[in-house]
C-alpha cells in the first residue's frame, strides 16, 4: 500500500494518547473522590477502626485472607465476616488459633489482648459497611 | 449515495500517516463499544433515558454539530490549499478549524455547567453517567483535535509542507474528521432519538 | 558486547536467576500447604511463604530490568555507562536489602518486624505485594533513583534511540508510581484505590513499556530487521497499551467501594487490553519471519517468540476471561484470579527478562551464542517451564470454576473451607505441574554450565 | 471540486437542522428512528468518503471505517427499534 507510516507520527501518537488517557483517568479519579463519602462508610472511621486496620496490616492478614476480594486466596473472605460470623465468634475464633488439627490449614495465634480484638472487630464492622455494589454474591464470600 | 463509484482510481493512498489511522481505528472501536453499551442500557430502561433526555439542550448541541462540521470543512479546504501551495489560505483555514473548536468547547462548557449546576453527576443514574461520560470523553477529543491542528499550523508557519508535502496536514485533519464523525453519531443518539 | 561497562549487567542477571529459584521454592511450599494445611507450620506460615514468593518475584524482575537497562542503554547510546562503579555499588545495596528483607520475613513474626522497623511512624506495611518494611521501601527508592540517574546521564550524553527512550520512560514511571506505596490512608476504599496505582499502573502500564523496549531491542539484534521498522511498531503497540490500560485500571474498581460506573469503564477498556498483546505477538513473529540474518542464538529467538505468545495468552486471554464486571462479580478473588496472575507474570515479565538474559549472557561471557548443546538444553527448559505454566494455569482455572460454582453460584452455597476441600484434586495437579516447572528451571540453570565438547567435529 | 465540496457542506448543515426538528415533526417513534438513521448515515458517509477522503483510500481502510458506521448504527437501530 502507498501512503506513509513514520516513526515520528507513531511516537507523537504514543505521547499524545498516553497523556490524554492519563488526564481522563485523573478526571475520573477526581469524580470518584467526590462520590466516595456516600459509599465508603468513612463516617464510621473511628480511632478504634483505625487501630484495627493497623493490626490488620501489621499481622499481614492479607497474606492468607482476601478483603473485598483482594489478597491471598488461602483463607476466607473477611470483608463480610462481621455479618457472616458476628463479633463474638470472630474474637473467640482468633483466640482459639491455631486449631492444631492435623492436615488442616493453620492460622497463627497473634496474642491479641481484648482491646486489640475489639479494634479488629470494629475494623471488620466498618469494612462490612462499605458499599461494594453487592459483592460478594452471597454470605460465604 | 457516494459508494457507487466503480471506476478504478489510478493510485489509492491512505490520507496521512498510517500510524494515525491505527489510532483512529482504536478510537472508533472504543466509541463504538461505548455507543452500543449506551444502546443496550437504554433498551433495558427506556423510561429513564427518555426522562433524562428531556433535560438536555438539543438546540445548543445542534450548534455544536454545525461548529464541528464547519471545522471539518475548513480542514478539508486547508489541506487542499496547502497541496496547491497556497500557504496563506491554508493557514487561514486551519485557524478557522481551530476557531470552530473553540466555539464548540465554550458552548459545551456552558452546557456542562448548566447540568452540573442542577446537581447531575456521574453517579446520578445510568442515563447521566453515560451522557456525561460520553460527551466529556468526546469533549476531550475535540481539545486534542485542536492541539493537533494547532501543531500543524505552527509547522506550516515554520515552513514545513514545502512542495505540497501534505501528509502531515492530512494526518491531522483525518483525526479532526474522526472527532466529527463520532459526534455525528453521538448527537442524535443522546439528544434526539427517543 | 560493545562497551566494557555493559559488563555490570552480569551480576544483576545472576542475582535475578538466583532469586527466581528462591521464588519457585516458596511456590512449591505454598502448593503443598494448599494440600497439607499444617505443612511447615508454625515455622513458615502461609502468609510468610506467600510474601516471600511474591516479593522475590518483584525483586528479581527488578534485577532483570536493571540488568537489561545496564546492558541496553550503553549499546543504544553508543557510549560507556556514566558510572559503572555506582551500578556495582547499587547492585550490592539492592541485593543486601532484598536478602535482609526476606530473612527478616522468615526470622521474626511480621508484627515484630513492623514494630522494629518503624512502621508506626509511616504505616506502609501489610498490603498485598507491598509488605516490605519501611527501610526496604526507602531503599528501593534510593536504588531506583541512583540507577535512573546513572542510565539517564548515559543516555543524555549519547545517541537517543526510541528503544532506549521507551525503556527509560518505563523505568521512570516505575519509580514514580512506586511512590504511591507510601500513601496508606485510614479510609480502606482510598487505600485500595491508590494501592492499584502501584500495582496496576505497574504491570498493565509502565512495565509494559519496559517489556516492549526489551523485546524490541532483542528483535533488532536477532533479526537484523531495520530498526526504524521495529521502533515504529513499538510506538504503536505501547500507545495501544496505555490507551486501553490506564482506564483499564477500572476493572479493579468494581467491588471495593468505588462508584458503580467503574463497572462500565473498567469492563470496556480492559476488554480492549488484549489488542496490544495480540499486536505484540504478531509483531514478534513478523519480525522473525522477515529476518535478514540467521542469528546463532536460537534460544533467545525462542524466548522472544514465547514472550509474545504467552503474554497474549496470560495477560490477554486469561485477563479478558474475567474482566467483564458481570463475570468478575463471581470470579473476583477466586482461584481464577490466581490462574491469570501466574500465566500473565510468567508470559509477560518472566519470559522477557529471560529473553534478555538469554541474548545478553553469552555476549557478556565473551561469545555470540552458547554452544549447540547448551542451547538445546535451554530450549528444553523453555518448553518444560512454559508447558508446566500452561498446566498450572489450566488447573487453577478448573479449580476456580469449581470454586465459583460451589461457593458463589450454587443455590446452597458452600463455605470457603468446605469448597477448598473439593478442589484438592486440582491442587494436586497444580503442585505436580509446579514440580515440572522447577525441573525446567533446574535445567535452565544447568544450561549455563554446559561447555562445548572438547572433541571438535571433523 | 469546489462546487461538490460546498454541496456536501450544505447537505451536512441541512441534515443537522432536519435531524434537530425531526422529533417535532415525526411523532411516531419508528418514523423518528428511520429519519434519524437516514440523516446520520448520510452525514457519516459524506464525512468518511469526502472529508476524510477514504473514497480514494485502499479498500480495507475505507470499508473498515464505513463498516464501523453501519455496524454501530445498525446495532443502535436494533436497540431503539
Number of strands of chain B: 0
Helix content of chain B: over 70%
Secondary structure tally, helices of chain C? 16
Indicate the proportion of strand residues of chain B: under 5%
Strand percentage of chain C: under 5%
Write the CATH architecture name of the largest domain in chain C. Up-down Bundle
| H/E element order of chain C | HHHHHHHHHHHHHHHH
Write down the CATH topology of the largest domain in chain C.
Answer: Cytochrome C Oxidase, Chain A
Unreliable stretches of chain B: 1-9
Kindly report the average pLDDT value of chain B: 92
Number of domains in the coordinates of chain C?
2
Tell me about the largest β-sheet of chain C: none
Q: How many distinct helices of chain B?
A: 6
Instruction: Return the CATH class of the largest domain in chain C.
Output: Mainly Alpha
Rg for CA atoms of chain C = 22 Å
End-to-end CA span of chain C: 30 Å
- CATH topology (level 3) name of the domain at 58-192 in chain B: Four Helix Bundle (Hemerythrin (Met), subunit A)
Distance separating the two termini of chain B: 27 Å
Biggest sheet layout of chain B: none
What's this model, at a glance?
The complex is a heterotetramer of chains A (141), B (194), C (458) and D (81). Chain B has 194 residues and is an all-alpha fold.
Tags for this model:
heterotetramer; C: 458 residues; mainly alpha; Cytochrome C Oxidase, Chain A; 2 domains; 75% helix; D: 81 residues; 3 helices; 85% helix
Please explain how this structure is put together:
The complex is a heterotetramer of chains A (141), B (194), C (458) and D (81). Chain A is mainly alpha-helical and 141 residues long. Chain A has five helices and two strands. Chain A has two domains: 30 residues; 85 residues, Cytochrome Bc1 Complex, Chain D, domain 2, CATH 1.10.760.10. Chain A is 50% helix and 3% strand. In chain A, a hairpin with a 2-residue loop joins strand 1 and strand 2. In chain A, helix 2 crosses helix 5 and helix 4 packs across helix 5. Chain A is elongated. With 194 residues, chain B is mainly α. Chain B has a domain of 135 residues: Cytochrome c oxidase, subunit III, four-helix bundle (Four Helix Bundle (Hemerythrin (Met), subunit A), Up-down Bundle), CATH 1.20.120.80. The longest helix of chain B has 32 residues. The radius of gyration of chain B is 19 Å and the shape is elongated. Chain C has 458 residues and is mostly helical. Chain C folds into two domains: 160 residues; 224 residues, Cytochrome C Oxidase, Chain A. Chain C is built from 16 helices and no strands. In chain C, helix 2 runs parallel beside helix 5 and helix 2 runs antiparallel to helix 6. Chain D has 81 residues and is mainly alpha-helical. Chain D is 85% helix and 0% strand. In chain D, helix 1 packs antiparallel against helix 2 and helix 2 packs antiparallel against helix 3. Chain D is flat. The mean pLDDT of chain D is 93.
Amino acid at each position: 500500500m502507498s501512503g506513509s507510516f513514520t516513526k515520528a507520527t507513531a511516537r507523537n501518537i504514543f505521547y499524545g494518547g498516553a497523556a490524554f488517557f492519563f488526564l481522563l483517568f485523573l478526571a475520573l479519579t477526581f469524580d470518584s473522590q467526590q462520590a466516595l463519602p456516600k459509599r465508603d462508610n468513612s463516617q464510621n472511621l473511628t480511632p478504634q477502626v483505625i487501630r484495627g486496620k493497623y493490626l490488620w496490616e501489621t499481622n499481614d492478614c492479607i497474606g492468607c485472607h482476601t478483603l473485598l476480594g483482594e489478597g491471598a486466596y488461602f483463607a476466607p473472605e473477611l470483608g463480610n465476616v462481621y455479618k457472616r460470623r458476628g463479633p463474638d465468634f470472630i474474637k473467640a475464633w482468633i483466640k482459639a488459633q491455631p486449631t492444631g488439627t492435623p492436615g488442616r490449614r493453620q492460622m497463627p495465634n497473634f496474642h491479641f489482648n481484648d482491646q486489640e480484638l475489639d479494634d479488629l472487630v470494629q475494623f471488620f464492622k466498618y469494612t462490612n459497611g462499605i458499599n461494594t455494589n453487592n459483592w460478594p454474591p452471597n454470605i460465604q464470600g | 449515495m457516494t459508494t457507487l463509484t466503480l471506476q478504478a482510481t489510478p493510485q489509492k493512498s491512505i490520507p496521512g500517516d498510517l500510524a494515525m489511522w491505527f489510532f483512529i481505528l482504536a478510537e472508533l472501536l472504543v466509541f463504538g463499544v461505548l455507543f452500543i453499551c449506551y444502546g443496550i442500557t437504554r433498551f433495558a430502561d427506556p423510561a429513564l433515558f427518555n426522562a433524562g433526555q428531556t433535560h438536555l439542550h438539543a438546540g445548543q448541541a445542534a450548534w455544536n454539530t454545525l461548529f464541528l462540521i464547519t471545522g471539518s470543512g475548513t480542514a478539508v479546504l486547508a489541506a487542499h490549499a496547502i497541496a496547491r501551495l497556497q500557504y496563506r489560505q491554508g493557514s487561514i483555514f486551519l485557524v478557522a478549524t481551530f476557531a470552530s473548536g473553540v466555539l464548540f468547547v465554550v458552548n459545551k462548557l456552558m452546557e456542562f455547567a448548566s447540568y452540573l449546576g442542577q446537581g447531575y453527576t456521574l453517579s446520578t443514574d445510568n442515563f447521566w453517567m453515560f451522557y456525561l461520560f460520553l460527551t466529556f470523553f468526546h469533549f476531550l477529543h475535540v481539545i486534542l483535535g485542536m492541539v493537533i491542528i494547532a501543531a500543524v499550523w505552527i509547522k506550516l508557519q515554520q515552513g514545513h509542507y514545502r512542495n505540497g508535502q501534505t501528509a502531515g496536514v492530512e494526518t491531522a485533519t483525518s483525526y479532526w474528521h474522526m472527532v466529527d464523525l463520532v459526534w455525528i453519531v453521538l448527537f442524535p443518539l443522546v439528544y434526539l432519538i427517543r | 558486547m560493545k562497551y566494557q561497562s555493559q559488563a555490570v549487567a552480569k551480576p544483576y542477571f545472576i542475582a535475578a536467576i538466583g532469586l527466581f529459584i528462591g521464588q519457585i521454592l516458596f511456590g512449591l511450599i505454598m502448593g503443598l500447604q494448599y494440600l497439607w494445611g499444617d505443612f511447615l507450620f508454625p515455622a513458615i506460615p502461609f502468609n510468610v511463604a506467600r510474601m516471600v514468593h511474591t516479593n522475590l518475584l518483584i525483586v528479581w524482575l527488578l534485577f532483570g530490568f536493571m540488568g537489561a537497562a545496564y546492558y541496553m542503554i550503553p549499546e543504544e547510546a553508543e557510549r560507556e555507562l556514566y558510572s559503572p562503579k555506582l551500578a556495582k555499588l547499587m547492585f550490592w545495596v539492592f541485593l543486601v536489602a532484598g536478602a535482609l528483607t526476606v530473612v527478616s520475613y522468615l526470622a521474626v513474626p511480621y508484627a515484630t518486624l513492623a514494630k522494629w522497623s518503624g512502621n508506626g511512624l509511616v504505616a506502609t506495611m501489610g498490603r498485598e505485594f507491598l509488605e516490605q518494611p519501611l527501610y526496604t521501601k526507602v531503599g528501593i527508592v534510593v536504588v531506583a533513583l541512583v540507577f535512573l540517574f546513572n542510565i539517564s546521564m548515559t543516555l543524555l550524553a549519547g545517541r537517543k534511540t526510541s528503544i532506549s527512550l521507551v525503556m527509560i520512560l518505563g523505568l521512570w514511571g516505575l519509580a514514580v508510581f512506586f511512590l504511591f506505596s507510601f500513601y496508606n490512608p485510614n479510609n480502606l476504599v482510598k487505600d485500595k484505590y491508590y494501592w492499584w496505582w502501584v500495582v496496576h499502573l505497574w504491570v498493565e502500564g509502565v512495565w509494559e513499556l519496559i517489556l516492549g523496549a526489551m523485546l524490541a531491542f532483542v528483535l533488532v539484534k536477532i533479526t537484523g530487521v531495520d530498526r526504524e521498522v521495529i521502533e515504529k511498531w513499538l510506538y504503536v503497540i505501547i500507545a495501544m497499551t496505555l490507551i486501553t490500560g490506564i482506564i483499564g485500571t477500572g476493572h479493579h474498581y468494581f467491588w471495593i467501594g468505588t462508584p458503580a460506573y467503574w463497572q462500565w469503564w473498567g469492563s470496556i477498556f480492559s476488554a480492549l487490553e488484549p489488542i496490544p498483546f495480540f499486536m505484540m505477538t504478531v509483531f514478534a513473529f513478523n519480525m522473525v519471519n522477515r529476518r535478514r540474518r540467521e542469528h546463532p542464538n536460537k534460544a533467545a529467538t525462542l524466548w522472544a517468540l514465547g514472550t509474545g505468545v504467552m503474554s497474549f495468552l496470560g495477560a490477554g486471554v486469561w485477563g479478558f476471561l474475567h474482566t467483564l464486571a458481570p463475570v468478575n462479580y463471581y470470579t473476583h478473588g477466586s482461584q481464577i484470579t490466581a490462574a491469570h496472575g501466574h500465566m500473565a507474570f510468567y508470559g509477560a515479565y518472566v519470559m522477557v527478562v529471560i529473553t534478555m538474559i538469554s541474548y545478553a549472557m553469552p555476549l557478556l561471557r565473551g561469545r555470540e551464542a552458547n554452544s549447540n548443546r547448551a542451547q538445546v538444553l535451554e530450549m528444553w527448559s523453555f518448553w518444560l517451564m512454559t508447558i508446566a505454566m500452561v498446566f498450572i494455569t489450566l488447573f487453577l482455572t478448573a479449580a476456580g470454576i469449581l470454586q465459583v460454582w460451589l461457593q458463589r453460584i450454587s443455590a446452597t452455597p458452600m463455605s470457603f473451607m468446605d469448597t477448598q476441600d473439593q478442589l484438592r484434586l486440582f491442587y494436586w495437579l497444580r503442585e505436580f505441574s509446579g514440580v515440572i516447572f522447577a525441573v525446567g528451571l533446574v535445567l535452565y540453570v544447568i544450561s549455563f554450565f554446559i561447555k562445548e565438547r572438547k572433541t571438535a567435529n571433523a | 471540486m469546489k462546487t461538490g465540496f460546498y454541496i456536501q457542506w450544505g447537505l451536512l448543515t441541512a441534515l443537522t437542522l432536519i435531524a434537530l426538528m425531526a422529533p417535532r415533526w415525526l411523532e411516531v417513534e419508528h418514523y423518528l428512528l428511520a429519519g434519524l438513521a437516514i440523516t446520520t448515515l448520510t452525514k457519516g458517509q459524506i464525512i468518511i468518503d469526502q472529508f476524510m477522503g477514504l473514497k480514494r483510500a485502499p479498500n480495507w481502510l475505507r470499508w473498515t471505517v464505513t463498516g464501523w458506521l453501519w455496524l454501530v448504527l445498525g446495532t443502535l437501530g436494533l436497540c431503539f427499534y
